[in-house]
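Wait, can you check?
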Amino acid sequence: MRILIVEDEEIQRVTLHDDLIEAGYETTSTASPQSALELINDVAFDVILTDLKLPGMDGIRFMGRAREIQPDVTVIMMTAYGTVSSAVEAMRQGAYYYLTKPFRTDELLLLLMHVDKYQGVLAENARLRRQLEVRYNGETILGKDTALHGGEVYLDGGTKALDESLAQFESKLICEALTKSHGNKARAAQLLHIPVSTLKYKIKKYGIE
């Protein structure tokens, strides 16, 4: 797996770079989004690990520019300025996951293992699409939103892996809100900008204590 780190804080960038190299990942790192875009023009990356706060261009805008060049790249957003609104916006714009600093190296490595599986599912999805196109001479015999419910792969471009990732992300946000509000559900609901009834439903859904 080839990873690009975009982080303007030198200590954080060097530490991440060294940890990923030690873990066996082919890793490139840079301090600015402009130099990162130049690299993306020349090199195919599997994962981009980028800070949300970057000099000259925020991480969400950078992600959009990067995916114009490499549409299939997986983007993981990280920031020390975590807010619910920025986290949701990053996911809405296509980020695979959102890491709040400080995070442990083992947390990142576990996430990269999930990314590897996720990309494998997408590759299998693409392979099945090609087979169907060849078999039926390019005519779509299944509706655009039809899924192969017996397996893990969905033909509409979504995957169970993605659903699981979003569920983990939502659960993490809820836990963080409950921690910040010291368990006060009304206050946590305000932080999340959702009704208390919705929060209680999701707490039960995810089995959050």
